[in-house]
Specification:
mainly alpha; 17 helices
Length: about 450
């Protein structure tokens, strides 16, 4: 660092100097950055209040671990309807009306599910399907908004701290879930999640008002500027934009394999946890299966999210800066490959738990940030339409592939944990090859990034 750079850094206000400990934040960027980080913090806190409820409901039905995998096919079918509907709405309303409409829909659903559960209606499978749509569409919409606010150069610097908001929200949600299960109850977490989700709308509107002038093209004013700030996008199908762009198609397939591997690992973990819960419930004075499963997953998610938050805060920005996006995108498939080789060798609950903790903590930190950076070179229409298709349908298609593997493995091939882990390791190897291809294409699309100047 030269003297001029050092003097400029020293002259920054204290909040900027703190933020610059983790990544480069320039004058005028902190307020929007912190508002976006808080926004996604609340989204992830809400999700992690909802997630243990989902696990408790689905794993309490007969063959719950298998049902988790099979329900993914239903989620993919629902997304074939939801994604075109989202694209249709995105092409006809301003971006804030789009965000308001989608967010309030999910808030209303949470309240409705709580009422149905308290009325004794069996909603395990419908709720599992709904959560699978929610946890993809709402974060994807948030990141499309963040991509729309920032230039590629700014996003590459600042997404690290926004993603830290997501990681810390996940930790907070897991901690709150563990406490609420003991003192309030399992299902009341749905109402708390609805309240937090509704709160995010105020933050989105604040960022929209603050950044609207910056999002306009040079020379635009008046009606033209207003038009630029709406969600009036290029006509065309969300899926069509994916299949017409080689980079987006590679990214879609890579994320499909990413989720296939992750979902197969979750099946392996769920199968072992279900067995442990049944054994615990059979003991004299043992806890109920629902409580055992919910408590286990609350602690497991807490460990995953704490590790992910620390990685996000202290490691991710440095890895992106020093090894580049094109290398960073290959880290998670390498870790996953090693994890499932280890599980295949030693298929024990402790091994599965901590291998999945390592895999998911990297997925929620480094991989989550890199995935959002990979969309920065795309057009505005691709950010809202194609991104929604990739981050929802193609990711859920990975779940469908995992469900097919579970179906074949359990009913045709009599697979145990070791066999499932071996096949999953092979899929992880293919994922690694796709990650290399995506990284190379990103370098070609973003030739002015730092990794291409080294």
């Amino acid at each position: 660092m030269n003297d001029r750079t050092g003097d400029a850094a020293a002259s920054l206000p204290l909040p900027y100097r703190i933020l610059n400990t983790f990544t480069e934040v320039r004058r005028g960027e902190a307020v929007t950055l912190l508002a976006l980080a808080l926004n996604v913090f609340l989204i992830l806190t809400a999700y992690y209040l909802i997630k243990p409820v989902r696990e408790a409901l689905i794993l309490s039905v007969p063959d719950g671990a298998e049902m988790k995998s099979y329900a993914a096919a239903g989620q993919a079918l629902l997304l074939l309807i939801a994604v075109p509907a989202y694209g249709w709405l995105a092409g006809r309303v301003r971006r804030m009306r789009l965000i308001d409409s989608v967010t309030l829909f999910f808030v209303a659903c949470l309240v409705a599910f709580y009422a149905l559960i308290r009325a004794g209606v069996p909603v395990a499978i419908p709720f599992f399907l709904w959560v699978g749509i929610f946890n993809l569409m709402v974060p994807a919409q948030f990141w499309a908004f963040a991509n729309d606010v920032y230039t590629p150069e700014a996003g590459k610097r600042l997404f690290v701290l926004i993603a830290f908001g997501a990681s810390s929200g996940a930790v907070c949600g897991s901690f709150l879930a563990d406490e609420m299960i003991r003192f309030v109850g399992v299902y009341e977490m749905l109402l708390a999640g609805a309240a937090l989700l509704a709160t995010t709308l105020a933050l989105s509107h604040f960022v929209d008002r603050r950044e609207r002038p910056a999002s306009q093209s040079p020379g635009q004013s008046g009606a033209a500027a207003d038009t630029a700030d709406t969600a009036m996008l290029e006509p065309g199908s969300a899926f069509g934009f994916v299949f017409r762009n080689r980079y987006l198609l590679l990214l879609a397939v890579m994320l499909l394999l990413n989720n296939w591997v992750n979902s197969s690992g979750e099946y392996i973990l769920g199968r072992i946890v279900k067995e442990a819960a049944a054994a615990a419930a059979s003991q004299p004075g043992g806890v109920h299966e629902d409580a055992f499963i919910a408590a286990f997953y609350a602690r497991y998610f807490g460990a995953v999210n704490l590790a992910g938050m620390l990685l996000q805060l202290f490691v991710v920005s440095r890895m992106i800066k020093y090894i580049g996006v094109h290398v960073a995108v290959c880290i998670l498939p390498l870790v996953a490959l090693g994890s499932y080789v280890a599980i295949a060798a030693m298929p024990l609950l402790g091994i599965v738990r901590w291998m999945k903790t390592a895999e998911n903590s990297i997925d929620y930190s480094l991989q989550g940030t890199v995935k959002q950076v990979l969309y920065l070179p795309t057009t505005r229409t691709e950010k809202y339409k194609a991104k929604q298709a990739i981050d929802t349908f193609f990711v859920r298609l990975g779940d469908v592939c995992s469900a097919a593997l579970v179906l074949a493995g359990t009913h045709l091939l009599s697979f145990g944990v070791r066999e499932f882990a071996t096949v999953t390791a092979c899929i992880a190897a293919l994922w690694l090859l796709l990650a290399v291809a995506v990284g190379r294409r990103f370098r070609a699309l973003a030739p002015d990034t730092e990794e291409n100047r080294r």
